[in-house]
Amino acid sequence: MRGALGGPRVLLRRLREVMAEQVSAQDRLDKIVVLIAANMVAEVCSVYVLRVDGTLELYATEGLNREAVHQTVLRTDEGLVGLVASEANAINLSEAHTHPAFAYRPETGEEIYHSFLGVPVLRAGNTLGVLVVQNRARRTYSEEEVEALQTTAMVVAEMVASGELSSIAKPGAEPAVRRPLNLKGTALNDGLALGHVILHEPRVVIKNVIADDLTKERQRLEEALAILRADLDTMLERGDVADGGEHHDVLEAYRMFAHDRGWVHRLEEALSTGLTAEAAVERVQSDTRARMLRQTDPYLRERLHDMEDLTHRLLRQLLGHDYDNARDNLPDNAVLVARMMGPAALLDYDRKKLRGLVLEEGGPTSHVAIVARALGIATVGEIANATGVVDPGDAIIVDGSTGNVHIRPTPDMEASYIESVRLRARRQLQYMALRDKPCVTKDGQSFTLMLNAGLLIDLPHMTETGAAGIGLFRTELQFMVAAQFPRTSEQLALYRAVLDVAAGKPVTFRTLDIGGDKILPYMRNVEEENPALGWRAIRLGLDRPGLLRSQVRAMLRAAAGRELRIMFPMIAAVGEFDEAKLLVERELTHLRRHGHRLPERVEVGTMFEVPSLLYQLDELLERVDFLSVGSNDLMQFFYAVDRGNARVAERFDTLSAPVLRALRDIAQKGIEHKKSVTLCGELASKPIGALALTALGYRSLSLSPSAVGPVKALLLDLDVAKAKVLIDGLIEKTVPGVSIREKLTAFAEAEGLAL
Ligand code: PEP
Ligand code: MG
What we know:
- The chain is of the alpha/beta class.
- It folds into four domains: 8-178, GAF domain (Beta-Lactamase, 2-Layer Sandwich), CATH 3.30.450; 181-202 and 325-425, Glucose Oxidase, domain 1; 214-319, PtsI, HPr-binding domain (Enzyme I, Chain A, domain 2), CATH 1.10.274.10; 434-751, TIM Barrel.
- It is 44% helix and 16% strand.
- It has an eight-stranded mixed sheet. Strands 21-20-19-18-17-16-15-22 form an eight-stranded parallel sheet. The protein has a six-stranded antiparallel sheet with strand order 3-2-1-6-5-4.
- Helix 5 (214-238) runs antiparallel to helix 6 (246-258), helix 6 crosses helix 9 (298-319) and helix 17 (537-543) packs across helix 18.
- Residues 240-246 have low confidence and may be disordered.
- Residues 472, 474, 513, 609, 630-633, 680-681 line the site of phosphoenolpyruvate (PEP).
């Protein structure tokens, strides 16, 4: 390195001594800048720290006016230092004055320095500050010098992250590393959680940054890389992931990265600056992360995750037993923060201690979100870099109703949420008191409230809510959370357990509704242009009858001596229903012939999700024993709005005349044909939706467990006849610009109904 005194390794050794000294935080920083300046033969070395208010404060300098320390404060859109921070990238200039972002503060006296090298102080991809060296002469800093300064910035990052600098910060302008953060994501499951952060994949804490013996570190890195590669080879060769499957592809990508010369070269470079093997791995990852986080291309972001997983494996390899698994040391009120996780991984945690879940990815239909819902955990998804901005043990609030996440909340924020939690608990008690009350409206109309379920963990909700049965049992959930295809015996065991818990209350099992967005990780996925309109649900079941047959057989056997209700998803034509029903009859004959005990009664019905059925209502109702309206899909096909696409999903109101007319027609025809019609989509789980549905003639609703209380409370106070008059008027003579939702809300208010 040009002119450097002893090079980066000597610098790191000296820095380690300074880090160990018993001195004040300011003295330590002052010594650090002197050391760096001397080592790099720079006239100036300064440390800027990012503060809670988002500005950068000069914390220490060698070379600039000392009076400017703690006085000079820059915005992140100001000057070259701001640019380094906002871009999280090094800037290396021989003539700083000509750069368009150049700005200088007279109090620092920096105008006489021409060359400038600034690097971000990074930790887990987050910018904590900026480290700068400057020289009077016009010179370009070499690659090695940039490397060396980046390595040094790691030591500064550790110091900032340790919280040591708070002692010399002005109140309200503390270093940003511990600042409260309010983030907004997607609400995935209602509920409020106040707790402490647990990282699903604990960040490996690196205690030794500076190498004692470089040869030894190089050897450690080589060995760890060799083991990592061998492990990946074994996993691929063992074939525990199906050839051509998604997991196989991921492992192939990992193997490719593990052999990537560029990556290995960067690791070696970082190592040669004097870092320990683990610090070198972290250094390289931190840079990659900062760079990739600015990417919006989903493919590249996915690659970042692959790289992170790989880095994680490598760090675990290097640190061995130091790696500490959070799952076994779960505190009470744990809030899990993860990039993404599989549904089975969530089930591995002690549910009694888990209050909330925050995911960097994960849309409403992700499988982990489905399980979180079943577990009743407040969940928010799509919080970018969530795992990077928290530290284990941080206080955190998850608001699953709005999608807000507050990290290290201020006392005011915490107090207001504690109040909300109290309020909710009080309301919950009121709902509990309604549990055993008969379901009858104010004007004497009886109605049935049932549950939507799909996993064993849903079953306790039966007794908690006092529901009349399970109106929709989504059998695909068992398939979605499993690592491989559940055997018929496993399906049989689940269905039997469900019927046992229901103890005579009706349970409607829906046959597999896979395809579309419901993908089984172990099943080869057929690429489709429009999966929601594609080869899914009953279509797949009829084309591959083996699967449907074994499922129906499991249901029939589970219900021996009891009543069984089977329902088919996505029926679009009566012929499909006939075909599916025939399959049930054949299975019954088969079981009878083999001497199995049969169900006492088998009712066969269908979901009503495809609008084509509106024009086959009579034919359909002649055939089925019951109907269940799936308003989620019906709405999607009715208005042609992808339910998973946030841009359009809310474009049309479910409570609009066309939808309500269709829903009314279904209910009326059901009454005429004396066939029961239930509504099991999300619409019924909103009190205002339940109000509209009851007014349209629905007397049976199937809800998510948390909706039973609020919906029942509303219906008990409802005068259905009055609501019917209102809704009939509203849907007969629609007035453009008049919102039915608003009219219903006003009605509820006037009637004292809580929505
Ligand atoms: C529906 O479509 O409304 C429904 C209940 O089914 P799912 O949400 O499982 O598609
Ligand atoms: Mg559906």
